Amino acid sequence: MSEEKQEFVDLTIEEGETYETLLTEKYKNRKKYEQTDADHIYSIIPGTVTKFFVKEGEMVKAGSPILILEAMKMENIIKMPFDGKIKKILVSDGVRIHKGSLMVELEK
Amino acid sequence: MALEKEISSLREKKAILQKGGGEAAIEKQIAMGKQPARERIAALLDKDSFCEYDLFVKHEVHDFGMASKELPGDGVVTGTGTINGKPVCIYAQDFTVMGGSLGLMHARKITKIMDHALKMQMPCIGINDSGGARIQEGVGALAGYGEIFYRNTMASGVIPQISVILGPCAGGAVYSPALTDFVFVVENISKMFITGPAVIETVLGEKISQEDLGGARVHAEITGNAHIYSMSEKECFEQIRALLSYLPSNNTQKADVSTATEPVYKGNMEDFIPENPKQPYDVREIIKAITDGSEFFEIQELFARNIVIGFGRINGESVGFVANQPLYLAGVLDCDSADKAARFIRFCDAFNIPIVTLEDMPGYLPGVDQEHAGVIRHGAKVLYAYSEATVPKITIILRKAYGGGYIAMNSRHLGADFVFAWPCAEIAVMGPDGAANVIFSKEIKAAEDQNAMRKEKIQEYKDKFANPYVAAARGFIDAVIEPSQTRALLIHTLGISKDKTEFRPAKKHGLPPF
């Protein structure tokens, strides 16, 4: 089997324990962890936004519906996580979005 | 010649059926770079050893215009033959007959040959090349799949089961290969997925090609579903024959012993280890310096490369190797490498193949992705597999054996029969830097020159603990050996372990963390 171009890097396993080694493709492509931002609502599944219940600038109570994300033939009602304002809506009706797309920005 | 008419009629019938889907369909198959089913079987088995059964089987479906449809052999060729002179059961789906689609009779031919394999205690090989369930047969096709999966499970650990993916294998069909011991794939030919690109695009809007979703390389490198990746059908068949040479026909036997040969490698074993303990080397070179003829049959070469698994021979006897690979990810254990090693250990144990473990691992891979992917339960599989195994288990600690990794890699504490260490081994609870910072934190903080004190304490820890003698003093390792003695010692210890018997408490089955 032909070997790809080998590039050695330093990999730290624990404090002071750094090793010269190759990385696997899977390790290189792993998704780095990002802390979720409570003020941002992301799509948890790829789908289509089919309905909005709110407008930008509107004050909304916790638990009220914001929009419907239709995915896998199911209507997912996305609800307001806390009492606050709809700062910005970044998706539009009928457009298919990927998983992890920023849909709505909120403000406490 | 009383039966002249009957015999010539039989010959005619057979000739028609053995053409499968006919000339045009066969040409199409060849144009796709694939061999027809019967040619594949002939290429894999010993010359002229194949005997076919159930050529005259017919489907019984009348709906959707199926009543008038002749499907030669119902789209699958089944039979028995030999590989390396030893009997095997085999089936090959015939893509030229209605896309190799699986109906109830097609499945019943497969389950019949699987039943033979289990009864006669011989390996079963399935060549998959099928568009999936024959939709016209409805729930009958589903029943067929289910009956295959059930037999795969019953035969698991009793006879070696091999799946060869030589075409599409999609939807429920993928679960038969997934239940078998070794899955062979071929570049550009194999395609495996549960939901194909079309469904994914319609439902999720994600565009991907068949090759990128479930091609041979993807399963060999990313998913770990495939064990052996070849560039052609010919190479694939050679690999199957090579693999079978290391395996017994069933779990009551031991693999055949070959004539012992010396390794080709004649240099010093210690030369493989770099002077700087933080530099990598390829552990496969060490394996090849140990094995007969320096031959090593690697399994899952591209998947989780930080651990190496495969078969070799020592003094003619088939042995399973599990080795940390410092060349990739410093040889750490992570979700994938733990999964890969654990399954292999269980295979060796099921089929009476001794396990030799070569250890050089600094610990587990740190990361949120690892923790969230369940490195705890995946890592536990290795502990389970080693502890559970009753075949001879020998460990050579080459260099690092830190912390949980020391325990996991077939330590004495998990029931290893023999544990040896090279003199450069570092058997300790953690790396010297980290350990010194914890143990001597007060002294380091109180010192005027903290850095100098830290360095001094790290050196102190290294001198005291980063060696094999502390563990040897407790009897946790049996001997500290010179690298050049490794092969001789393995020959000796494998030899005296031939009649090893070890009992386990009676149970219905254990609960490995899968």
How would you sum up this structure, described in words?
The complex is a heterodimer of chains A (108) and B (514). Chain A is built from 1 helix and 10 strands, in the order E-E-H-E-E-E-E-E-E-E-E. Chain A has 108 residues and is mainly β. Chain A has a domain at 40-107: OB fold (Dihydrolipoamide Acetyltransferase, E2P). In chain A, strand 1 (9-14) and strand 2 form a beta hairpin. The longest helix of chain A is centred in the first third of the chain and has 4 residues, at 25-28. Chain A is elongated, with a radius of gyration of 21 Å. Chain A starts with 8 loop residues before the first strand and ends with a strand. With 514 residues, chain B is α/β, with parallel strands linked by helices. Chain B has 3 domains: 35-245, 2-enoyl-CoA Hydratase, Chain A, domain 1 (Alpha-Beta Complex); 269-430 and 466-494, Alpha-Beta Complex (2-enoyl-CoA Hydratase, Chain A, domain 1), CATH 3.90.226.10; 432-465, no CATH class. Chain B has helices at 4-18, 23-31, 37-44, 104-120, 139-155, 175-179, 197-204, 210-214, 216-223, 233-245, 283-290, 335-350, 368-372, 375-388, 403-408, 432-439, 441-446, 450-465, 469-473, 486-496; strands at residues 51-53, 76-83, 86-93, 124-128, 161-165, 168-170, 182-186, 191-193, 228-230, 297-299, 307-314, 317-324, 355-361, 393-402, 418-421, 426-428, 479-480. In chain B, strands 10, 11, 12, 13, 14, 15, 16 and 17 form an 8-stranded mixed β-sheet that branches. In chain B, helix 15 links the parallel strand 14 and strand 15 (418-421). Chain B is elongated. Chains A and B meet through strand 1, strand 2 and helix 1 of A and helix 13 and helix 16 of B.
